[in-house]
Automatic annotation (TrEMBL):
GO terms for molecular function: ATP binding; fructokinase activity. Belongs to the carbohydrate kinase PfkB family. It comes from termite gut metagenome. Keywords: ATP-binding, Kinase, Nucleotide-binding, Transferase. This is Fructokinase. Pfam families: PfkB.
Length: 256
C-alpha cells in the first residue's frame, strides 16, 4: 500500500480571536496535512522533532489520537518545543508570531524505508533551514533513488521575505527534487513578487518541475503541466478559520 511520508516542523499553535486566546492545538505546515490523512485512514509517517516537555507530550499524544505514528519523532532533551501565536482577523485570516528554542543537535533519527510510488511531502522554512539541510537532502535523495513521488509546498512566510534572494538557490534545489509543486498566491508573492500563474510556471517552475498547482485562497486553482493549462473554481464556503487551509488542500489532493 502506498505510504505518505511527511517531514516538517511541529509546533503548538495558540489561536487568538481578538486579544484573547481561544484554543491551543498542535500544528505545522506538513504536520497538518499528515494529520488529515491519518484521520481518513491513510498510511502515514511523519518525521520531525519536539522537546521533552509538556508541549512536546501534547503534540505526541495528538499524533497518536489521529493515527499518526510517532516512531520518526526526535524528542530532544535540551531546548523547548516551539509555539506560535496565531491572531485571527475579521476575515479569519491569521497572522503569526513564532517562538522557538532548539538544541544544537537536530533531527537525530533514522529515516523510514521508502518504496516506489510512496509520496514524500516537504516544505516551509523547514525545507530551507541550513541547519537541517543535510538531513533534508538525505531524505530527498532516498526518495529519488526509490522512485517515490515528491510533493513540495514552499509555504513561504512573509517573515522570510527579506531572505528570499539568499534562499533562492535552496528553493531551486527543492524544485529540482519535486515531481509536484503546490504553492499559494502568497508564497510566490513573497518569494518572487509575482502573482500571475503562467509567468510563475514559465519563469520559476517549469524548468525544474513539470507539474504545478497554484492556489489563491477562495479564488481560482490553476494547474500547469507540459501539456495542460486549466483553471478550477473554488467552492465558496464560510470559513471558521483559514489556518491550515493550504495544508489540507495538499492532503485532499494526495488522498484523492
Amino acid at each position: 500500500m502506498r505510504k505518505v511520508i511527511g517531514i516538517g516542523e511541529t509546533i503548538l499553535d495558540i489561536i487568538f480571536r481578538g486579544e484573547q486566546p481561544s484554543v491551543a492545538v498542535p500544528g505545522g505546515s506538513v504536520f497538518n496535512g499528515i494529520i488529515s490523512l491519518g484521520r481518513v485512514g491513510a498510511e502515514v509517517c511523519f518525521i520531525s522533532e519536539t522537546g521533552n516537555d509538556r508541549v512536546g507530550n501534547t503534540i505526541l499524544r495528538f499524533m497518536c489520537e489521529n493515527n499518526v505514528p510517532t516512531d520518526c519523532m526526535s524528542v530532544f532533551p535540551d531546548g523547548k518545543s516551539p509555539i506560535s501565536l496565531a491572531f485571527l482577523g475579521e476575515d479569519n485570516d491569521a497572522e503569526y508570531l513564532f517562538y522557538e528554542k532548539y538544541p544544537k543537535q537536530r533531527l537525530d533519527i533514522v529515516f523510514p524505508k521508502i518504496y516506489e510510488d510512496d509520496i514524500v511531502i516537504f516544505g516551509s522554512f523547514y525545507a530551507l533551514n541550513p541547519v537541517l539541510r543535510e538531513k533534508m537532502l538525505e531524505l530527498l535523495n532516498m526518495a529519488r533513488e526509490k522512485k517515490a513521488i515528491v510533493y513540495y509546498d514552499p509555504n513561504f512566510r512573509i517573515s522570510h521575505k527579506d531572505e528570499a534572494m539568499r534562499l533562492a538557490p535552496t528553493i531551486i534545489e527543492n524544485l529540482e527534487y519535486a515531481n509536484i509543486v503546490r504553492g499559494s498566491i502568497d508564497d510566490f508573492l513573497y518569494m518572487y513578487n509575482l502573482r500571475d500563474a503562467d509567468k510563475i510556471y514559465k519563469d520559476k517552475i517549469k524548468f525544474y518541475c513539470p507539474t504545478f498547482l497554484y492556489t489563491a485562497g477562495a479564488g481560482t486553482i490553476s494547474l500547469r503541466t507540459s501539456s495542460i493549462s486549466k483553471e478550477y473554481l473554488a467552492k465558496q464556503v464560510e470559513t471558521v478559520s483559514t489556518i491550515g487551509a493550504g495544508d489540507n488542500f495538499n492532503a485532499g489532493l494526495i488522498y484523492g
